[in-house]
Design brief:
three-stranded parallel sheet; Rossmann fold; single chain; about 10% strand
Length: about 525
């Protein structure tokens, strides 16, 4: 990969292929590559600062498909602009994107080993993602003694300044030697380059941590689903066995469940709507605070530039164009994260109450028919869904024309400065309004979407719980009344199904229990 100033996604494919996404997805350029050199040459035209200065080509991000076996394990590598980017807003966009990743590779080189800017960036990265792996590149330029000294130095710096545990490894690698070894198919040299260690580390992380956590979550969810099915089957069996008069009496008792559930669902939706309105009002309040913060900051920057460049009205424009994208990219990330936390906390309270309501419906039916009932084993936390790909934002930076007419130049310095600042203040107000709206609007959309989807899911889950629980009993009752001869065979079949599912459920619970002890 060339040194990138554009985010580049590398994922599994059946051939080497590049897709360059332009102008936020409005268009793209796609091309196959016969080998690594051709692919690098193609990418260099779009992702490097040298070939695409200030991203004049309007590249949003690049996707690379590659047939590497490593990628077929489900790994997607993302090369971000990071702190090597010329523009601060790309660094902020990188930090905003990182929480969508499972892990980060923090790569430093020997020249110098690590800078204060990199340390500060690493602190930001570690605050946004739980797993970071550390790599020292260009290890082939170092002798063993120098390499050991640099690794020890890095270990100390990372521990003292960032808080990284001293037992966390830093992997020395030579990407150049690794590439040459891979092209020759030389496994021994591939290992010597250090690249095999990285490959092993990432695959171990993917398989042993991510997949095991996913497997346990699936097992718990499957156990819950089996619990629901077993309850319905047991209700059916009890309904088929029970004397008809007694069954009718219990069915009469169950008639109150749908009405009670609907009443509680209505109350819950009212509470949900109240939380949504409070969140929207809080967003408007924070947008107002951001307007004031941006207005004061930009006016100060513009005034300083105007004074420093002897009232040259081009200077404020250049100064603001330099800081605005990074400022608002940072504020968008901060506001989005803050609201995601608030929305997640609020909706998790609603989810807990919904879970309790569903549990009460099922438990009531189970107790009424003397059936054993186990509560849920999985408790999914609500997560705000966001698009899992790089989003390029365009922040307006132009002040427009700031006329400095002939008569202005005849005025005393103080009056001339006051007139220039007044004109700037008007344009800065417009600039702030446009950019704050670019922060407020997507945050509001995510907020509305999260509450809307949660409300729909709440309705669906509760409706399914009531209909499935009561439906199993109603179906058995109808069979008792209309097909009495089929009751015994049906009961035997259901009991056989219960025995099979019960064994599967016990196996799943044992698997989850073993993982808890092992963890």
């Amino acid at each position: 990969m060339p040194l990138t100033a554009i985010p580049t996604f590398i994922r599994a494919g059946d051939r080497r292929h590049a897709r360059v996404i332009l102008n936020g997805g409005d268009s793209s350029i796609e091309q196959d590559a016969a080998n690594a050199e051709e692919l690098n040459e193609l990418l260099a035209q779009y992702v490097t600062e040298e070939a695409n200065p200030a991203n004049r080509l309007g590249v949003s991000y690049v996707e690379v498909l590659h047939p590497a076996p490593f990628l077929r394990a489900g790994v997607v590598l993302i090369d971000t602009p990071g702190i090597g980017s010329t523009h601060r807003h790309n660094t902020e966009a990188t930090l905003n994107f990182i929480p969508q990743c499972d892990a980060a590779l923090f790569v430093v080189s020997p020249d110098p080993p690590v800078t204060e800017v990199e340390i500060e960036f690493l602190r930001e990265v570690r605050s946004r993602i739980s797993r970071v792996f550390y790599v020292l590149s260009k290890a082939d330029y170092l002798g063993d003694s120098d390499k050991d000294k640099i690794l020890a130095f890095l270990q100390g710096v990372l521990h003292d300044q960032v808080g990284v545990d001293t037992d966390v490894p830093i992997l020395p690698v030579s990407a150049r030697l690794g590439l040459e070894a891979r092209q020759r198919g030389d496994g021994e040299e591939w290992a010597k380059s250090g690249m095999r260690d990285i490959e092993t580390l990432l695959l171990d992380f993917l398989v042993h941590e991510k997949e095991s956590a996913l497997a346990e979550a699936i097992a718990r969810k499957a156990s819950d689903l089996l619990g629901y099915v077993l309850l319905e089957l047991r209700l059916s069996v009890q309904s088929l066995r029970m004397p008809l008069e007694e069954l009718e009496t219990r069915l009469e008792t169950l008639k109150s469940i749908p009405a009670e559930a609907d009443s509680q669902r209505t109350s819950e939706k009212d509470l949900l709507e109240g939380d949504r309105k409070r969140m929207a009002a809080l967003l408007e309040e924070q947008a107002g605070q951001l307007r004031r913060k941006a207005r004061n900051r930009f006016l100060q920057v513009a005034q300083d530039a105007l004074e420093e460049h002897h009232l040259n009205t081009d200077a404020p424009q250049s100064a603001l164009a330099e800081i605005i994208p990074g400022f608002f990219e940072h504020e968008l990330g901060e506001m989005s994260r803050a609201f995601e936390c608030r929305v997640r906390d609020a909706l998790n309270h609603h989810r807990q109450r919904t879970d309790a309501l569903i549990e009460s419906v099922r438990r009531t039916a189970a107790e009424l028919f003397n059936i054993p009932y186990w509560p849920l084993t999985s408790r999914d936390e609500f997560e705000v869904n966001r698009q899992p790909y790089w989003v390029t934002h365009h922040w307006p930076v132009s002040l427009g024309v700031l006329p400095d007419c002939f008569w202005d130049r005849l005025l005393p310095h103080g009056m001339r400065k006051s007139r220039a600042i007044r004109r700037m203040r008007e344009r800065i107000e417009v600039l702030v309004a446009e950019n704050v709206e670019n922060v407020r609007w997507p945050t509001l959309q995510n907020l509305q979407k999260s509450f809307r989807e949660f409300g729909n899911a709440l309705d669906a889950r509760l409706g399914e719980a009531v209909s499935a629980t009561k439906g199993a009993i109603d179906a058995a009752y109808e069979k008792r009344k209309t097909q009495s001869a089929a009751v015994d065979p049906e009961t035997a079949r259901l009991e056989c199904d219960i025995a099979k599912l019960k064994q599967i459920d016990e196996d799943l619970r044992a698997y989850c229990g073993a993982n808890e002890k092992g963890g």
